[in-house]
What does this fold into?
Amino acid sequence: MVRRLLPDLTFTGVLDILVVAFLVYQALMVVRGTRAANILIGIIMMVLLYAVATWTGLEALRAVLSYIVPYIGIAAIVLFQSEIRRALARLGRRGWMGLGAGSATPAINEIILAVEQLSAKRIGALIVLERDIGLRTFIESGVRLDALVSRDLLLSIFTPGLPLHDGAVILQKERIAAAACFLPLTTNPEIASHFGTRHRAAIGITEETDCLSLVVSEETGRISIAAYGELIQGLGTPEVVERINRHFEVHRPTSMQIDEFTADIPLAQEDAAAPHERVKQV
It folds into this structure.
């Protein structure tokens, strides 16, 4: 009787394989495009080298690596602490796997009106829209406002020379939670060197949470959006509206889109044709 080399593939086995594949995929997506990817490749190479040394009988090499390999797990936790934190935050999102979809969109009309004027006047601004993952830690770093979102208030906050103009404004649904907030800067080495602190902060906060950041450049007045570690530059107002709705999973157009941008409603076609600049992270 010939002994089977492989066990029978059952439903439990298929489910087990799919779960492992999903976890591996998520881990690769977390480190893709970051310094952690190169570190991960180095760790894998070291483990493979240890296996080859053991298999071929290279005792000197195996002895040296035997003092290093056992500590790789601890080193990985230290080196990948930010990536591990980001992965756990993704798994803990309330909108994971479609649950809790359709998050409430902030007061988009007031935000867009303010961003338009800030862009026209070339006034730098950074507005962060909270989604599922709370931003309380970053809110506490700024000045608490807890005020309704309005164009005039946003314009007043970012007016140059006023106490609150420097830093980020964090929005929680229909309210401005805080202004002059400090955000983590991205450490992605692939980010172009010409990006300033404002754009790096916009990317950095989206690397750790599922929020969306709106940036107005002080030098050029260009409007950019950052989400999930990716920065998209040079967006027009209709595209900003469309991307905010997409991020918050709102599938119907707002009254502002219908009344003011009727000719621009087929945004999917324009988005495909527009040569936007992208800076990708994860």
Q: What stands out?
A: The chain is about 45% helix and 15% strand. The mean pLDDT is 77. The radius of gyration is 23 Å. Residues 196 and 217 are 9 Å apart (CA to CA).
